[in-house]
Amino acid sequence: MAERSTRPRVWSIAAHRGFADALVAGLIPRYREDRFGLARLTLLLPSQRAIRTVTEAFVRVSGQGLLLPRLAVVGDLDLDETLGPLLDPIGAGAGVPEAVDPVHRLLKLSALIRDELGAEAPGEAALLRQARSLGQSIDRLLVEGVRPEDMLDEGVLGLSSELSEHWRESTKLFATVFFKWQDELARLGRIDAPERRNLLLAHAAQVWREAPPAHPVIAAGVTSASPAVANLLRVIADLPDGGVILPDLDLAMEASVWDALGFAGGSDGKVFERGDVVTHPQYHLKLLLNRMGIGRGEVEPWHRSGLAPAPPERSRAISNLFLPPEASAAWASLEARERRLSGVRIMESANPEEEAQAIAVLVREALDEPERRVAVITPDRSLAARVVAHLGRWNIGADDTAGRPLPQTAAGRIILQLAEVVAERAAPVPLLALLGHPLVRAGEGRAQWLERVRQLDLVLRGPRPGPGLAAVRGKAQEHDKRHPGLADWWSGVEDLLFPLLSLDGQVSLDAALIALSEVGEALCGQGLWAQADGRCLAQFVESWREAASEHPGLLPPEELPAVLRDAMEEVSVRPPYGGHPRLAIYGLLEARMSRADLVICAGLTEGSWPGSPATDPLLAPPILRALGIPGADFRIGLSAHDLAAALGAPEVVLSHAHRDATGPVIPSRFLLRIHAMLGEQLRRETRAVNLARALADPEPELPHPRPHPMPSAEQRRVPIAVTALDRLRGDPYQFYASAILGLRRLDPVDADPSPAWKGTAVHDVLKAWHDGGGRPGELVPLAERMFDEMSAHPFMRAMWKPRLIDALLWIEEETDRLAGEGRDVLAIERKGEIIVDGIRIHGRADRIDRLADGTLAVVDYKTGTPPSGKMVAQGYALQLGLIGMIARGGGMEGVAGEPVKFEYWSLGRNKDRSFGYMKSPVKETARQTGLLLEDFLPETERFLREAIARWLLGSEPFTARLNPDLPGYSDFDQLMRLDEWQGREEEGSQ
User: Fold this and answer.
1) pTM of the full predicted structure?
2) What Rg do the C-alpha atoms of the chain give, in angstroms?
3) What is the pLDDT of residue 286?
4) Rounded to an integer, what distance in angstroms lies between the CA atom of residue 203 and that of residue 331?
5) CA torsion angle for 584, 588, 593, 596 (degrees, to 10)?
6) Contact 959/706 with Cβ under 8 angstroms?
């Protein structure tokens, strides 16, 4: 090798060369002196993902077996163990305390905040979120070498006094908790993870400065500008056999533009000055060089290229693309070769679904070419998931290397669903979701298990039965005859869920985790922990359980799901190898240092790439600036650097959608720069979008014809319920589906109490009251007790129950008043039937009274608005008339006489704004609509015989929506495919 000069050795790999491949292409010939040359090299990289990327690059570039260098991560907490004998043969890092457990820190910070806030402290979930945010702020300070006492500096205190009340209080809270946390660390003999990293880096720098290692050390791809990292990199650059290799440092940028970026830590010890262009992709590299004490002129270009380099002019165009605002005026006079982005295309889609499909099309076509590598880079994980799903159409396995949050995995969902069962006291929705989870009873007996779960699903339809497992047991026992063995099966399920019963009232987090894990394993067996997500879950549960056991705080079960979900969101489950070998889907962090022949940058919208700057919730921007902490805009510069690196690929597609799930979005500011700089030279990708639209837009189907079933004569001869004649005349298809096909609409699980359910509940109460003698003063207490037993739904308790009680009180008073006039209740909920033209007409009378002269009054209770007289006259509200016909014909046991009164007793609001009123469908005055009393039963009979002749004894089809203006029936709209033909019949016939 050439003789070592005194000049620090720092290189930069231009964006168009491809960092990882270019790095390896230069390291192999430089250090491969013999079989062990590379093995003696120590390569410091920024992350574990970078180690994987560089390892893959060694395999690609070498083309044969070789011993890899020692690979270490600069920010690793175990840096002393990773570097081993290079730092200290006896054990490097001796004297550096261990890092505190992160979960212990979070719980302790939460306790400290609770102590400070006192009675104003929020719930446990919100408190942990605040503690998590405070811990992140502490880490930001420690990374930059800021100590608690620095917050007592006169300049910081002076700024704090000028802030608004909110910022002063939050700064005070942060400083107080920060100092108390330092005292806690001293008691434990531990330190925070960022501080440990700083000490390890300082230790490595000191050792290597005093005794340079005998073998070469190279730091590659490290761009963190923290003081500890910058100090170590300077030491490595000064080593006899060392060097620092930076990614995408722009060496061709004019000095005036470089100066326009700002001071970047180079002015009187201040890190950030007003006017610094912190959003520029080169700013953080300038800050790093300044902290290293190295000028940009001392950095040399790395002349090796990777396997897939882009044209050299690409780097110059990227440099011009990100010029600071004032310097970007030069775009108007740039020569074509200085802004040429050949191989870069813009792809615009209508929405994220179309964008994902178009990206999948591009990937599919690229992978058809042998050895062609493809990378999709996006910060939007939902977009990445869509792309993975669309690629499955062509059996292309794709792994999102950014991983999936633990709550979105199968194993993570089990624990959260169990927590939801506890929080909602075994409500039907979380309970059924848990029992039907793919991991529960996976294996040989799962089919039988799922059949029982389906039966339980049917049992729990409708309003919630009540809180707790006992209410579910009651439902299972109630329907055991219909589903034999269901009660015994549920008893076994209760045994499995038994540990959850202990989680009642205030519970400790460690006890909750133990119970949830026990039940999860009882339901799923060892399969819960078998896969990658299960192993991550086991580590999560163990770490949180151990830390929580040292913090005896209690929390209500209602907060358990939120606490666990927030904690599990911090854990990513990385996919194992197994996807397509030439395809990678990256997040922004994972994409650094990687390279492919085709790079698709997706989700390029404001708020996504770059992300929305998030202000620190506890420390005001002036405080952060005074402490030398990067502000929220600093991350925009990092996002710009990520895009600049991606633009160095041979072929690049920059994709964005015009709207997301919430509405229209703005294209990324980086895309707007490309539009402004290239103008008419801009190339667009439209073919993939057109193919995506074609895939998602098949040939239109003709409108579905209006259904008109024609059952056989034998199938038509079915009984008619008194409530079904209206349906037969107004919408024959609905009658056909219910009476002939025997279909019934299922209520939703854990449904809000519906009007039909409310009517049934009222009828049950009134029947129980009349059966008990119907004595005055007993109806309301009976109703209150029965309503509480029927449903604990808040909608029932808060809204319906008070109104129904008022209306029932009116019924009680009205019944008592009529009794004084000689009117007695003759029958309640009495069934009856008659035969008309050979067809059985059957039904149940809500109530029939005997008047003083021996005639009958037919009463129908309504929880809503009674039908109008016009509907009665047109034959679409015939229930009262049919009940009268059955009563007159002797079809009801114990009921005989001539019906002369027909009344609706409504529980709705009357004209006086109170509840309860009476209305008759019989026309009594000239101004009323409806039928006269003498015509009421004859007309009812005429409508009945006409319907029987047309549909049950005749051959008329059961046409859907025969009377489209008739409201009320919609149970089978989906079955008749109403939306596919209603209003389109004329269109289909043209």
Assistant:
1) 0.85
2) 38
3) 93
4) 47
5) 40
6) yes
